[in-house]
Amino acid sequence: MTVKEVTDILEELAPLCYAEDFDNVGLLVGEKNMQVSGILVTLDTLENVIDEAITKKCNLIVSFHPIIFSGLKKLTGATYVERVVIKAIQNNIAIYSMHTALDNSNMGVNAKICEILGIGNPRILIPQKGTVKKLTTYVPEADTMRLLNALFAAGAGKMGNYSNCSFTTNGSGSFKAGENANPAKGEIGTTHHEKETQINVVFSKSEEKSVLRALFENHPYEEVAYEIFTLENSDQTIGMGMVGELPKSIDAKEFLLFVKEKMKVSNIRHSELLRKKIKKVAVLGGSGAFAIAKAKSAGADLFITADVKYHQFFEAEKKMIIADIGHFETEQFTKNLLVDYLTEKIPNFAIRLSESKTNPIKYL
Predict the structure, then answer these.
(1) Residue 125: pLDDT band with limits 50, 70, 90
(2) What does pTM read for this prediction?
(3) Which of 96, 102, 128, 244 would staple 119 via disulfide (CB 3.0–4.6 Å)?
(4) Percentage, residues of the chain above pLDDT 70
């Protein structure tokens, strides 16, 4: 199995096109056609993780956080990032990062937190914009259903709980084939009028390549006229954070102690505890203070995240509780999620859960 074959499987879970613009995801070190001897899954790629990969004979590291975040201008070993990259290259180890692509997956980081804490019926807290597109094309009436079925099979026409969605309208198209053309309809040098169907189908951003492939492979015309638009609609299964409900209402302090135990947290920084019980809970792994307002508007009684600054705790405004349980702590089970996913997809393959400690924050 090659690196690309493994990463293609990972991108079924978390397509890279859904990563945030500021991020650096995908294959960061190594060649995509390299044969994989073993996979080591980690939260961070540090030198001790490279050493662990060498010991365990794993030449592909699947990391949540990217070791290369901004551009590297030199490789001298002066920084921990440079040393990791040098050691990986020297030992022919590839490094692949998922980060915000997995953050935005409805089966990713936040889904795992909800699973551990027993938060039921979770839905995306902040749906990502620009995830729904529309294809418009024109085809001879006789070829309409064949092309539509091919587009549906490629993933087009899905909206929420509905599939095979489309809109068609009939009209007349015209064209004149040049001397080097090979027209499917009409004659060279003569203006031809054809009864055509305008096809409109929606598709997810991640399906664009497969939808266009289906269009070109199944359209009868030599030159295919088509347009792609980004819609205002949002795919409610893609985005940051999640919000759901506990099986029953629970006292705030009791629930925070439960979170502390389940998430293996040393301490929790939180805003003022409120008298009301906790039922609806929002979560956002990693630095999630930007979502405080969204959690409040979603009616969350408590919001679990990390990296909340002093003044941001005031934004709770006694309407909900903000709980900062730590950046590493919110994301630590991500590697378990990835190991389980890869093991199911690639059984009988060497997939290892990293045992290296990578949390840079210590507590006294």
Answers:
(1) very high
(2) 0.92
(3) 244
(4) 100
Q: Which 8-state DSSP code applies to residue 17? A: G
CATH T-level fold of 109-127+238-325: 3.40.1390
Closest CA to 39 of 359, 358, 335: 335
Summarize the chain as % helix, strand, coil (round to 5): 35, 30, 40
Residue 276 is encoded by which pair of tokens?
């009301």
The burial class, CB within 10 Å (0-12 / 13-18 / 19+), for 14 is buried
Fold of 132-230: Alpha-Beta Plaits (3.30.70)
Q: Distance from CA of residue 167 to its chain's centroid?
A: 29
Using the structure block, give the residue that is written with the tokens 């592909």. 60
8 contacts: CB under 8 Å, gap ≥ 6: none
Amino acid at 242: M
Mean pLDDT computed over 44-63: 98
Residue located via tokens 């499987």: 9
Q: Which residue has the tokens 């199995």?
A: 1
Counting beta carbons within 10 angstroms of the beta carbon of residue 355, is it exposed (0 to 12), middle (13 to 18) or buried (19 or more)? Answer: exposed
User: How many CA atoms lie less than 13 Å away from 173 in the CB half-sphere?
Assistant: 19
Q: In this predicted model, what pLDDT tens digit does every residue of 277-296 receive, in sequence order? A: 999 999 999 999 999 999 99
Q: Which tens digits make up the pLDDT trace of 153-181?
A: 999 999 888 999 999 999 999 999 999 99
How large is the C-alpha radius of gyration of the chain? Answer: 25
Burial 194-221 (b: 16+ CB within 10 A, else e): bebbebbbbbbbbbbeebbebbeebbeb
Secondary structure (DSSP) of 297-323 = HTT-SEEEEE---GGGGGGGTTTSEEE
Residue 204 near residue 155 (C-beta atoms within 8 A)? yes
Parts of the chain belonging to CATH 3.40.1390.30: 3-99+333-353, 109-127+238-325
Is the torsion defined by CA of 302, 303, 309, 312 positive or negative? Answer: negative
